[in-house]
Amino acid sequence: YRGKFAMKKLLGTTATIEESRLCCRHRKYWMTVFSFLAIYFMGSFVSSVLLMGPMTYHIFNNPELVKLMESGVQDQQLLVDTVYETMPEWMNAATLISTLGMILVTVFYCKRFENRRPALLGFIKKGAFLEYISGLGIGLLMFSIAFAILYFYPGGEAVIGFGLNKSVSVPMIILYFLGFVVQGASEEIFLRGFFFVSG
């Protein structure tokens, strides 16, 4: 009896998941797949639109690229290669932040078509800050252990490239941190908050 109770508790679902399932209980499996693909492509499109501003700024403030365009060069591949070869570091962080588009589309769809509350997508208020900080702490610990193993292993310094890049600034580290916060949240909301529950 105790074994059955423990297994039921282990495999059981929470009230939040059950409520989420009720929001789409009449949906066919193919409709869930269709919704997943629609949200994915629409979210990717919105993310691309959000990235257009930073990309446009990069293109028209790139002396090398402006010089090529003013010279009337017809080689489109050369222009594209120049855009990516001269891409500033902050553009990578901007690409991560642009995944906010996926969050916006997922939340809109679930609110408009499935009548889900924010809590059913993982947005909670009670204890959210402490849980987030503890998650960051665990993640930092895991990365630190992996880093330490590589660093102290003979030849590991060359593997991780420690000390090779002296130009990384604190603002850039903060920008990357914010970018990965948004990018990580977009995956969690889209997959765990929407698809894993709707499926």
Main attributes?
flat; mainly alpha; 76% helix; disordered N terminus; 199 residues; 0% strand
Present the secondary structure layout.
Blueprint: H1 2-11, H2 15-23, H3 29-60, H4 63-70, H5 76-85, H6 89-97, H7 100-113, H8 128-152, H9 156-160, H10 170-198
How would you characterize the overall build of this protein?
With 199 residues, the protein is mostly helical. The chain contains ten helices and no strands. Helix 3 (29-60) packs antiparallel against helix 7, helix 6 (89-97) packs parallel to helix 10 (170-198) and helix 7 (100-113) packs parallel to helix 10. The longest helix has 32 residues, at 29-60. The radius of gyration is 23 Å and the shape is flat. The two termini are 31 Å apart.
Major beta sheet, specifics? none
Number of strands: 0
Average pLDDT confidence is 79
Q: Sketch the topology as an H/E string, one letter per element.
A: HHHHHHHHHH
Tally of individual helices: 10
Radius of gyration: 23 Å
Principal-axis shape equals: flat
The helicity comes to over 70%
Summary of the model, kept short:
The chain contains 10 helices and no strands.
